[in-house]
Amino acid sequence: MNQNTSAPEPAEARVKKRGNISSVWLLPVVALFIVVWLVWKAISEAGVTVDVQFQNGRGIKQGKTEVRLNGIAVGKVTAMAMSEDLKSVNVTLEMDRRMSNSLTENSRFWLVQPQVSVAGISGLDTLVSGNYIAFQPADTGIKRKKFIALSSPPPLGEQENGLSLTLRAKELSSIQNGSPVYYRRLKIGEVSSYDLSADDQYVDVEIFIKPQFAHLVRRNTRFWNAGGIELSGSLTNLKVRAQSIASMIQGGVSLYTPEWEQEFPEAYQGDVFPLYRDYDEAEAGIAVEIDFPLDVALGQGKTRILFHGMEVGLIKDTELKDDYSGIVANAVVRPDAVNLMVKGARFWLVKPSIGLHGVSGLETLLSGRYINMDVSSKDIKAAAPERHFKGLANEPPASPSAPGLHLNLRADSLAGISHGSPVLFRKMQVGSVQSHELSDDGVLVKVLIDPAYQHLINSSSRFWNVSGITLQGGLQGFSIKVGTLNSMLAGGIAFDTPDKTSNTVKNGTGFVLFNSVDQAHQTGQKITLIFETAEGLQVGTKVKYKGLVVGQLTGLKLNKEKGHIEATTLLKDSAEWVAQKGSRFWLVRPRLGLANSANLETLVTGQYIEVQPANRKDAVAKMVFTVEMTVPDDKPLNTGLRLQLVSDQLGSIRRGNPVYYREIPVGKVTGYRLADPASHVLIFINIEDRYTSLVTEKSRFWNASGVDVKFGLFSGAKIRTESLEALLAGGIAFATPEVGEPVSANHQFKMAKEADSQWLNWAPAISLGDE
């Protein structure tokens, strides 16, 4: 091994320069960037926290209950806590950041959970997924982080872009949340909520109409309650109406728009419409008002309006007038009957009636009461529109244009006649009484003669009352007159036509309705008697002359201007001579006294009027006379000697007092009056024919009334009276000293207050002549 081998030379070291930062530090930098990115991502994608206050926490679970929008989760419950007042629950929600712009004061939250009711089942999906909180975003309004949850879902109109309306009803009836809204039995919406109106007088029902059906609702659309089953009508006309099985169970609302009305614009959001109780009330038509008297009972239900048996309208409701003087019926008339709503149309209530005329309105026992209406063709042609009418309690008289002959009969009193009373010709009914009313001079009775019999009437026709039973006569005998059985019960009018050739009459012709057939056929002179009062007078009061009837009163009326009673009097043909100037009339009434009663027969036969005719050949005719209420004071008797006595005072002398001669009545007092001048009294007496020779120019008269009592200390008491009658009722006595020539009529004597003692001793032998 070579020892001399040299050792290798050492290698030269190379020095390299390195950077200031080592690559090892890159890893922390990358990690830092990752952390920053994660933080930024977490912050940018973090949700929005909001607080929602619920009434309770039932059905809400922290960390599980979602917040959904249109079925998509947009948040969840992160925390729950009781409120400070322990009356509610504060729920913290973490919402998707994308919802931040939609969280405004108009946003809504509510809990969705399964509900089962008559209206149906809602929230069924929550049975699988659990309850959730529904969110309704709103882009308008101030942004908020705190909200109060709704107790129930908001109306559908606020959830969808449909039409929300308010229906105002008097009562809720069967409507509830979710009740369907129908159009032609197709569901187009539903009831979303209901509540009392602001004034608590109505119920406001909120409904939602789906967007595709919103154009169906016009400003004149009518809504009605379509829930349940509606029964209406009567036993002969029963109506059953229902929309669907669903509406029968859960209630509902129907609507329609009247096609006959002009086109109205579409309804706007929030419009208010009335909600009617049923279809009949909602049915559109012409609104009219009918005023009925208080005694008309229309009932609580709807009342039909018929025109010749056809239904043309309906009375929907009634109310009292403001002054409580009647009933106002609010009615709706079908559009096709609008031509009947003119001036002259008449309305009256038809109801079952059983009376003397028979049975009427019997059909209403089954079909119910109804309103009948009538209008003449003349009024229809005139076409004067009217919307306010006066209703009647009973059927009115036939229209003036109705077929037949319309007549006006004037009577002093109704005397048993009523609406529907028959008009008879030879006891056969040929017409009927249509109406009656008071007039200035009595009663006006309107009758209608059937067209087939109107030829029986002409200007000579005479009408009289045949109502009931007529009794005529007195204590000496009487007669009974009756018409038909119907007229006895219900009243009636009869007539005849003496002259068949007389002129025909037209509608509206007036006739006098007499009280009896005898009065109707009386002919003679008519005069007018004027009375101070009608006491004791009546139509039929007799006018007599010497006990014979020469006329009777046919009418009584008050002359308001002059304040007296005017009596129309019909004189018999044979008594026309009574109507002459100078005739005097006075009323004969019963007079009762202690010993001087007179005219007692009038207590049975009734008062009558006595007449004293003028009996002058040159007397002129006179038609108006004033009747004295008592027998005239200066009325002479037809026989006997009429004398006048002059006295300072009347004393107890009265008409009818006896005149005595030797205590035997030979005459009587016929009257008295003040003399002219009024310094004394004239007393008229009448001496019977057979005693006229007892009165001569030397006769002396004195007042024999009462008792003549004389008393002397030595002569004692002397009591004298002419008679018991003179003691009770008064009287006059006279004496004659010697035979002489009888005085003539109207001779005047002075009457002494008492008899001279010499007069009582006179006893001439005066012959009375042949008896």
Automatic annotation (TrEMBL):
Chief location of this protein within or outside the cell: membrane
Span of domain Mce/MlaD: 47-137, 162-222, 404-463, 524-613, 641-716
Keyword Transmembrane helix: yes
Alphabetical UniProt keywords: Cell inner membrane, Cell membrane, Membrane, Transmembrane, Transmembrane helix
Protein name: Paraquat-inducible protein B
GO cellular component terms, A-Z: plasma membrane
Domain of life: Bacteria
Pfam families recorded: MlaD (PF02470)
Organism: Endozoicomonas montiporae CL-33
Keyword set includes Manganese: no
Cross-referenced InterPro entries: Mce/MlaD, PqiA-PqiB_transport
Localization terms from the record: Cell inner membrane
TM stretches of this protein: 21-40
